[in-house]
Amino acid sequence: MKNLRDEELRFPQLIHYYSDFIFFFLKRYYKELNNEMTVLDAGCGHGRNLKLLYSLGFKNITGIDIVKRQNFKICNYHELDLAKDKIIGKYDIVLCNFVLMFIDTKYQLSVIDKLINTTNKYLLIETSHLDGQYSYTCYIQNFYNYILGARKDVQIIYYNKSKERLIIKKWQSNQTDISDK
């Protein structure tokens, strides 16, 4: 994997184009990551996170989105409705950035389960407070409480309620280390 700091220096605009949550994750867990890991971006949109990860050396990347896209030369792409379709495959890192607030609330927890079930190691969830601009109410606190209560196969390793961010690590423990450093 390329050095993230080198990429930031070469392309200072990256920090403004991409979610700082992706950079936070890569910096915090870089010792556990390698560019052979498989990555899924659930709700990838135009692929900005996929392009970032590709530029950092990740080559086994897949994007899924409800909208049909073309010209994804750097990754596998599948048109898929997260609320209704099954996600095929398992991935070491699964990203779900600013997607859940566009999914009907009656499907949100089942989508969380789908994402966890397709994750081998890390699941990153980032959403936004509902300010009347999105289709559905979506609060990270609801997912946090659900995961703590219902999922014993994962550990919450990062939780930030005010920024609506959650990192889940898949393993056989229900202990939590939710430091916000």
SSE layout and pairings?
Blueprint: H1 4-10, H2 14-17, H3 20-29, E1 38-42, H4 48-55, E2 60-65, E3 76-79, E4 91-97, H5 105-118, E5 119-126, H6 140-150, E6 154-160, E7 165-170
Parallel strand pairs: 1-2, 1-4, 2-3, 4-5
Antiparallel strand pairs: 5-7, 6-7
Question: What does this protein look like?
Answer:
With 181 residues, the protein is of the alpha/beta class. The protein has a single domain, classed as Rossmann fold. Helix content is 30%, strand content 24%. The protein has a 7-stranded mixed sheet, sandwiched between helices. The longest helix is centred in the middle third of the chain and has 14 residues, at 105-118.
In short:
This protein is an alpha/beta fold and 181 residues long. It has a single domain, classed as Vaccinia Virus protein VP39 (Rossmann fold, 3-Layer(aba) Sandwich), CATH 3.40.50.
